[in-house]
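During the reporting period the student researcher (J.K.) took over the structure-prediction task from the postdoctoral fellow and processed the backlog of single-chain submissions. One of the processed entries is reproduced below for the supervisory committee.
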Amino acid sequence: MLRSMYSAVSGLKTHQTRMDVIGNNIANVNTVAFKSSSVTFSDILYQTTSNASGANATTGTGGVNAKQIGLGTTAAATKVSITSAGASETTGNPFDIRLTDKNSTNFFIVNNGSENVFTRSGSFYVDGSGNLCMSSTGYTVMGWQVDETTGEIRKDTVSALRIMQEKNLTSAPEATTQATIAGVLDENDTDVKNDAGRVMNLNFYDNLGYQYTAKFAIKSTGTDGKYTVELTSVLDSNNQNITAKLTKQQMSQLFGNYQADATLGQYGLAKGCTYDAATKQYEKDGKKYKVSADSTVFQEVGKPTNTVSITEIFSGITTTMANDIKDKTSKTNVEFDTATGHATVKGEKTSYDLVFDTSTGKFASIGGDTPSTMLNMSVLSSGLLNNNGNFQNITVDFSQCLNYENGGKSTIGADAGATDGKTGKGRKLGAMTGISIDTSGRIYGTYDNGNTELLGQIAVAQFSNASGLEKVGESCYRTTLNSGEFDGIGVEISADGSSMTTGELEMSNVDLSSEFTSMITTQRGFQANSRVITTSDTLLEELVNLKR
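J.K. obtained the following C-alpha cells:
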C-alpha cells in the first residue's frame, strides 16, 4: 500500500510538471518566435519480488515470469518544438524580419555582451550607436562586414552589424564623365537664328560633389544642315561664372575651335530703316543718320548730338554685341557694306561645327568627330584657374540630335550621363535617407544622391540538432553538447533556398487547442493519482483498525 502511495505521489509531481509546461506555453501564446514545449513521461525503478525462471526439462515444468511492481513515473524529457515555425504577422516595419526555412532551421545570431546566443525573434531596431539590435533585449545582431577594398561581403567571422556608423551616413560623390545632347534642332527656331543662339544647360558634378552648369549656345550658320556649338560660360552653385575672366582663346581649351577673325553674324536693316548708297546715309523715321566713329551710334545729319543705337538700325544686333563692338579689347568689330548698307560683325569665335545630313536630318558630325567631343574641364586646374583640381573631362555625345522642321520649336537639350541613362552622370555627396534588407539578409543604405550602397549582411546559424539547444530566456537559445557547436562564421540563409522577409515577424507556434486538450488529460491524470492516495489511505486506516 505504501508503494501505491509513493507511485501516486510521483504521478502528482509529474503531472504538475506537465501542467507547468502547459501553463508556460499558454502564457507565451503571443510571444514573438516562442517555441512550445512538451513533457514526455517515463516509468521509474521497479521492485522485483521474484526473478524469472526458465523451463525445466527434467521436471517437465515451464518457465515463470519475473514478478515486478512499478514504483511510479517521472518526467523523462522536456521537448521543444523548435523546428516548427509559427504563423507570420505583418508589421510593416523594415527592421522586422521573419525567417523562412527551406531545408534547415535557421537562427539569428545575437550577442549579449559575453557570448553569442541564437534566436528566431527578428524584431530589431537601430540603437544610438548605429548597431542593429534585438528590440526586447538590446542584444547586438551579428553578421558579416563589407570589405572596404572590394565593396563585397567578407564572410570570415561574424561581428556586430553597425550599419549606421559615421562612414555609412554619407555616400561618396562622383564626378560627371559623360553627357548626352539629344532632341530636335529646328532650323526655323528664332532662338537658333539670333545672336544668343539656342541655349542649353548641362548640370554636372566635380569629384567633391559640387554642382556646376555649363551653358552651350547653338547658332545657325546660314548653311542648311550646319550649325555652331559654343561653350559660353560655366556657373558654380552660387551662379557665379568661373570662366568670366577667360579669353575666347582660353575658352577654346575647354570646348571648341578658336578663330581670331570669324564672322559672328550678318545683319540687314531693321523695319522702317532705309539706306542711301550715294550719300552712305541711313534714314529712320524721316531722319537721316551717319555712322559715328565708334560704329555703335548713328548721328543725325546736321544734329550730331541726336543719336540712335546700332541696335535700332539693324535687325538682330543685340545690346551685348553692340557693347562688344564698342569695347576694343573684345576684338569685335563691325563692317558696313557701302552698296547695301548691311552690317557684318567679326571677332573671336570659339565653337565646333555641328553638321547634319540634309537628306535625313540625322546627326553627321561634331567638330569633325563622330559622334562626340570633349568638354575638357580638367584644364581649369592646369594653368587657367588653378583653383579647382577636382574636375573631370566630360565626353559630350551629340549622336542623338536630329535636324528638321518642328513648327519652329527646338527640343534639343543637354543631360548628364551616357545614352544608357546609367553611367557617367555624376552625383553630389549623398546623405542617408533609408535602409533596406533583401531576402538574403543583405543590408543596403539609400542616399539622396541616388546611390544605394551595401552596408553588411545578416548571417544565420544552423545546427545538426536544433532541438538540442537550451532555452536561456528572452526567446534566445545557447548551444549544448547535443545541439552541435557554432563555428563563429555562420551561413548565408539563401544557401539552401531559405530566405528573410522584412516587415513580418514569426509568432509563437503554440497551438491553443492542443494545449487545452493536454490540460484536460493532465488534470484527469492528477485527479486519478489523487484518488489512489485517498484509497491507499483508506486501506491503511482499515489495517490499523484490525486490532480493535
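The committee noted the following: Residues 183 and 412 are 4 Å apart (CA to CA).
J.K. will present the remaining backlog at the next meeting.
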